[in-house]
Helicase HerA central domain-containing protein
Amino acid sequence: MTVSVDMGVDGTGSPVPVDLEELLATRLLVQGNSGSGKSHLLRRLLEQSAGHVQQVVIDPEGDFVTLSDRYGHLAIEAVDHSERDVARFAARIREHRASVVLSLEGLEAEGQMRCAATFLNGLFDAPRDHWYPALVVVDEAQLFAPAGGGEVAEEVRRASLSAMTNLMCRGRKRGLAGVIATQRLAKLAKNVAAEASNFLMGRTFLDIDMQRAADLLGMERRQAEAIRDLARGHFLGLGPAITRRPVAIRIGAVETSARSSSPKLTPLPQAPTEDIKDLLLAPAEPEWVPPAPPPAHAYSQPETVLEQLARSAPSPMEIEPDRDPEEVAGLVADVLRAIVEDEQSTLRSPAVLYQDFQVRCRMVGLNRPPLDLSGFVRRLSAARAGIHGDPDDDWAQALEAARALPDDMLGPFLLVARAAREGLPCPSDTDIATSYGTSSLGRVRRLMQYIESKGLFVTRVDLSGKRSITIPRLGWTTQASDG
């Protein structure tokens, strides 16, 4: 079946079709400086060929996700997923022949390159039974196949360049037709650009880029100046899928639009100069300054505190033998909350804190605290996780899942479980350290590894470095956040 894609008109107003089957076999390179209309050209190609061939778009700026509303493309935000997820998506895309837009918006350059390499390798490594024809459009290809080293790690650069080389050199046999667009040919690796047999060259100004474009189009050096004079949206086309001789093409209109657009002039604000000056030069908001600590002599000596407790503590005869259990539970919860809110409690051992717990209970009228040391450690762990009531009441399911853990690890587990059940961001290592009663982040990492080894946690870190934790036995997952 022959399918012609209408890309626009030539200088005489005649349509310029692109043979889609020939394009799948011979690949396409689009070049043009920023503002020349490359993204418009790619959008025209995608819109006109939608429904005829599977389309896969690697989109660094998230401009092509709008295709999903009109043409049903699945938009995948890479920042929300891990590398393992991206590789799995790529395999499923080839199997089910789904048209997708992989948006890399929100990732740093290194993260974009790593994600693109993983995704392209996943497409390339699909089983032979899934080698269906697909257009693989890569915008800003110079980011993923740079001609030289940059600020990213060499390992990442090589992985990305290798994936792009595979796409353009070996992808045809696997049904993958590369369509790459770049702002500058000089910044694009030559072994990637050389594999394209079809070219659409837009406006460019630098001599080195004009010369390379002219060489690819088979133009003489003196004719290269024509590339500098091209208007926005006008391209010189050549190739077996377009025409055997260079032809000037004005790209046709599109039905969808990008989320971002070229800057437009807007009127400046008309506020009086005095108001602007007052606004810009207004003093900064006063910063909060913590109150100065009281002088050393203001603290009571330990002997004085003990004497005061002895005088204020009620005797066993003064306590009602039948106190309301809810009242007792409320007092215990208040005492635990006070201990957790004491910043120094993190540095004290459970045995020392239990003594503090007994003293505080006597101060509020509980002559016989209702918790032994083991029960106190359990309740303290829950309180550090923000659960000040009896965890056996509302958290029985989570406690049952954590039976394999020692009582002192219950705090970090419940902290994560509480965030997962309530849909909160994943706790940071610092928060987990506080719930564990330590200030060592290295100890926290070993703790998390231990809990994962028990099958209680599954930690996932996406390409932007954000962490989320799933508790498989409960089916709860935290929101992703910086760890």
Remarks:
- The longest strand covers residues 243-251.
- The radius of gyration is 33 Å.
